[in-house]
Amino acid sequence: MPPESDNGPSAPALPPLREVIAAHGLTATKALGQNFLLDLNLTAKIARAAAPLTGFTVYEVGPGPGGLTRALLAQGADRVVAVERDRRFIAALDHLQAAYPDRLTLVEADALQADEEALLAGAPAKLVANLPYNIATPLLLRWFAKCELFDSLTVMVQREVADRMTAAPGTRAFGRLGVATQWRMQARRLFDLPASAFVPPPKVTSTVVQLIPRPAPLAPARPDLLERVTQAAFGQRRKMLRSALRSLGTDPVPLLAAAGIAPECRAEELSIEAFCALAEALRRQGA
Ligand code: SAM
């Protein structure tokens, strides 16, 4: 059986990923979070986790040598828009571009500054990516703010980031990222991958998380104020909120009273709705 058989029966013949890497002399750059998945069974598993892909444009950040990209195409994505910052990989993906001339759009850009709206051009879209771990959190926060663009987001992140995204109130991992994630998204852990699945192996275990945008946020709040209150509250998470919230520059006691929260509570005890109530109380104070 040829090594690329995971691409599916109708997929075009493609060179093995290790050949692509060797032919282009692609060494991994740590500063760009380059840890590649070369096992096509695993890239196919991630693509399947985001299924169905037919009828969708898939937005991928960091195609690298293209293992996940080819899986997304083989799984039937109408089109893949892949944004890669490292131009060496844009050149190395010419074989994939040639195999899928109408379905693959390679964009050389920094995903933190990409214009997703323009790139997706109103098409129904899913985001699927093995994220560069050094910028995973800013990328996710950026996409939460424009989550209406995506039907779902299926992302590989460090397990510790997955823990924080999916943490429930009252647990140690619950914090700013958990509030920011779950306020707008339903988050579900799908599976872990050991460091040994990547080339080169990262220092940590990885987890695939699936995020489905909620039809509306869990409770009303202005995003900037929700971020301000969670930053203040979790900045001093061991303290009671009547102390921790002093950094907001307003008296925390009436603010907490207006939000219906006991001043002795600590940040990790609050529900996401309670943080929204705090943000709303701050807004009513004219913040
Ligand atoms: N998708 C490939 C795979 O699974 O083997 C590579 C994943 S690797 C973890 C992360 C990829 O993101 C690398 O190809 C890296 O060059 C790219 N990358 C890093 N920073 C980026 C940025 N700011 N914008 C776009 N791509 C970036």
Automatic annotation (TrEMBL):
- Primary place of residence? cytoplasm
In what residue span(s) does the Ribosomal RNA adenine methylase transferase N-terminal domain sit? 42-215
Positions binding S-adenosyl-L-methionine in this chain are: 35, 37, 62, 84, 110, 130
Q: What is its EC number?
A: 2.1.1.182
Q: Keywords for this entry?
A: Cytoplasm, Methyltransferase, RNA-binding, rRNA processing, S-adenosyl-L-methionine, Transferase
The record's listing under CDD domains reads: AdoMet_MTases
Which positions make up the signal peptide? none
Keyword Lipid metabolism belongs to the record: no
Entry superkingdom: Bacteria
Location in or out of the cell: Cytoplasm
Query: What SMART domains does the entry give?
Result: rADc
**One GO MF term:** 16S rRNA (adenine(1518)-N(6)/adenine(1519)-N(6))-dimethyltransferase activity
Q: What is this enzyme's catalytic activity, as reactions? A: adenosine(1518)/adenosine(1519) in 16S rRNA + 4 S-adenosyl-L-methionine = N(6)-dimethyladenosine(1518)/N(6)-dimethyladenosine(1519) in 16S rRNA + 4 S-adenosyl-L-homocysteine + 4 H(+)
What the protein does comes down to:
Specifically dimethylates two adjacent adenosines (A1518 and A1519) in the loop of a conserved hairpin near the 3'-end of 16S rRNA in the 30S particle. May play a critical role in biogenesis of 30S subunits.
Instruction: Report the family membership.
Output: Belongs to the class I-like SAM-binding methyltransferase superfamily. rRNA adenine N(6)-methyltransferase family. RsmA subfamily.
Q: Per its record, how is this protein called by name?
A: Ribosomal RNA small subunit methyltransferase A
Q: Tell me what organism the protein belongs to.
A: Marinibaculum pumilum
Gene name for this UniProt entry: rsmA
